């Protein structure tokens, strides 16, 4: 058996363990109770229309609600004031319509007492049994402990948004530094502080995460996915993907298609 066959067999075996566990569940594991105990992290699940269906107590506290149930059925624009609610709702629509996850997006949020502060947000689309998106789940973690000035966060947020909106284009570190209002060294230092990665590593991770989402849930040719993720040709994309994931794009796609059919 070749090393590639051994890797795929081991990965498939681990996936079987996960599938057996999920099939044995009496009801879905949402994680709401676990996140109730984490005061610096907002947790939520929304349906395809952006309405809250699950929230943790932290989100209820942030929005001045006594009970979590008071938020159920509401959208972000109904919960958060002005531009903040509109921004969250726009982001939700993007996740649901494009099926594109958000990982570690730097943005403003509400802290206790209604004061705005910075957080890192993750959102994942939720796929139904017919392979259509039925909603999204996410968390937003406070950055109260970081010492960077507010201006640094604003510049970083603009830069990170630019990165994720332009992964199909060349992203030069010097250009990103100028956009953020920082030197290349300062920008790299801020990214390392937030994500534990260099700026170059962050760009690779963002492209590979987008590629994984496309490979799992779209019928695009791999050559087209490569271009959408900023790689000049499929060969370069395949080399980087295998280095990052341990499988070729084709192997990764086949593995997840098989898991979806199981």
Describe this protein's structure:
With 262 residues, this protein is of the alpha+beta class. The chain has a domain at 31-143: PAS domain (Beta-Lactamase, 2-Layer Sandwich). It is built from 12 helices and 5 strands. The chain has helices spanning 3-24, 32-36, 57-62, 76-79, 82-98, 150-165, 173-180, 184-195, 199-217, 222-228, 234-245, 249-261, and strands at residues 41-47, 52-55, 102-110, 116-127, 133-142. A 5-stranded antiparallel β-sheet has the order 2-1-5-4-3. Helix 10 packs across helix 11 (234-245). The longest helix has 22 residues, at 3-24. It is globular and about 60 Å long. The chain starts with a helix and ends with a helix.
Q: What descriptors fit this protein?
A:
54% helix; 5 strands; Beta-Lactamase; 262 residues
Structural class label: alpha+beta
How would you describe the shape?
globular
Question: Do you know the CATH architecture of the domain at 31-143?
Answer: 2-Layer Sandwich
Largest sheet descriptor: 5 strands, antiparallel
CATH topology of the domain at 31-143: Beta-Lactamase
User: What is the N-to-C order of secondary-structure elements (H for helix, E for strand)?
Assistant: HHEEHHHEEEHHHHHHH
Unreliable runs: none
The top level CATH class name of the domain at 31-143: Alpha Beta
Produce a short descriptive summary.
This protein has a domain at 31-143: 2-Layer Sandwich (Beta-Lactamase), CATH 3.30.450. Helix content is 54%, strand content 16%.
Q: How is the topology of this model organized?
A:
Layout lengths: L2 H22 L7 H5 L4 E7 L4 E4 L1 H6 L13 H4 L2 H17 L3 E9 L5 E12 L5 E10 L7 H16 L7 H8 L3 H12 L3 H19 L4 H7 L5 H12 L3 H13 L1
Antiparallel strand pairs: 1-2, 1-5, 3-4, 4-5
Helix pairs in contact: 6-7, 7-8, 9-12, 10-11
């Amino acid at each position: 058996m070749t090393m590639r066959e051994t890797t795929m067999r081991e990965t498939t075996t681990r996936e079987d363990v996960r599938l057996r566990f999920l099939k044995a569940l009496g009801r879905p594991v949402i994680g709401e109770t676990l996140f109730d105990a984490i005061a610096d992290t907002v947790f939520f699940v929304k349906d395809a229309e952006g309405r809250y269906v699950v929230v943790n107590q932290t989100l209820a506290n942030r929005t001045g609600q006594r009970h979590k149930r008071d938020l159920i059925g509401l959208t972000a624009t109904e919960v958060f004031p002005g531009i903040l609610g509109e921004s969250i709702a726009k982001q939700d629509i993007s996740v649901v319509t494009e099926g594109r996850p958000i990982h570690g997006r730097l943005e403003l949020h509400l802290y206790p007492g209604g004061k705005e502060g910075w957080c890192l947000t993750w959102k994942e689309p939720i796929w139904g049994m017919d392979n259509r998106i039925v909603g999204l789940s996410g968390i937003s973690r406070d950055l109260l402990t970081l010492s960077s000035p507010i201006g640094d966060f604003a510049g970083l947020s603009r830069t990170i948004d630019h990165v994720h909106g332009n992964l199909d284009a060349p992203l030069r570190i010097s250009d990103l530094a100028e956009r953020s209002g920082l030197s290349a060294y300062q920008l790299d230092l801020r990214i390392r502080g937030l994500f534990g990665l260099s700026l170059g590593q962050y760009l690779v991770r963002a492209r590979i995460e987008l590629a994984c989402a496309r490979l799992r849930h779209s019928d695009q040719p791999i050559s087209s996915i490569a271009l959408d993720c900023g790689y000049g040709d499929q060969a370069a994309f395949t080399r980087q993907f295998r280095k990052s994931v341990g499988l070729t794009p084709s192997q990764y796609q086949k593995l997840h298609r098989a898991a979806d059919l199981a």
